[in-house]
Design goal:
Layout lengths: L1 H18 L14 E5 L4 E6 L5 E3 L16 E3 L2 E5 L11 E3 L19 E3 L14 E3 L14 E3 L14 E3 L14 E3 L14 E3 L1
Parallel strand pairs: 6-7, 7-8, 8-9, 9-10, 10-11, 11-12
Antiparallel strand pairs: 1-2, 2-3, 4-5, 5-6
Length: about 200
């Protein structure tokens, strides 16, 4: 009878741990302690008390970003890395930087796809533009439906909204362009004051 009671208590406790845990799991690592998840030979996950570093020795597998709660890496409360697309499919977008891209793009198929932005607020207002490349602080920030634009530099093509097939390389190059198309600007402030004109080239 005593053995039977022990078995019943063990099963009840195990069942409670598996299915009835509703509170937080809290513990404190001792000085120099390390929390690990491992098998017989490999440590997969570790957290060090001494420096707070988190180590993952295998891949970090994130889902596709379909909204602000899936597949996103944050810095504080701001989005930092994600690949959101309007259709919820892979879309081949890549956004890296504080508030790069957004979670409000619209459209289907090619719309809002094939975009790459690296930099704070780059391609921040994008709606359905596609095949854009932005590298730099606020690069192509205002772009909404413009497509096939390339911006490299601080505020490059900053004001562009619907302009297409423009190339800007340099600090604020084509920075004031809004609707102009097919222009190329290379150099510090090159074509910075152009707003709606098209088919311009400036070097230097």
């Amino acid at each position: 009878m005593k053995i039977t009671i022990v078995v019943i208590l063990h099963v009840t406790l195990f069942s409670s741990l598996l299915y009835s845990q509703t509170g937080s799991i809290n513990n404190t690592l001792g000085t120099g302690g390390i929390f690990t998840i491992k098998d017989a030979s490999t440590t997969f996950f570790s957290l060090s008390q001494s420096n707070g570093y988190l180590d993952i020795t295998k891949s970090l597998n994130l889902p596709l970003t379909t909204d602000s709660s899936l597949g996103v890496i944050f810095k504080g409360t701001n989005r930092f890395i994600h690949n959101y697309t309007a259709s919820g499919t892979q879309g081949f977008n890549t956004f890296v930087g504080v508030n790069a891209g957004n979670f409000t793009m619209a459209g289907t198929n090619i719309d809002a796809s094939y975009n790459t932005s690296v930099g704070v607020n780059s391609l921040n207002l994008l709606t359905s533009g596609y095949s854009n490349s932005a590298l730099g602080y606020f690069a192509l920030y205002s772009n909404t439906t413009g497509y096939a634009n390339s911006a490299l530099g601080y505020n490059a093509l900053y004001s562009n909204t619907i302009g297409t097939t423009n190339s800007a390389l340099g600090y604020t190059a084509l920075g004031m362009n809004t609707t102009g198309n097919n222009s190329s600007a290379f150099g510090y402030c090159a074509l910075n004051s152009t707003t709606t004109a098209s088919y311009n080239s400036a070097f230097g």
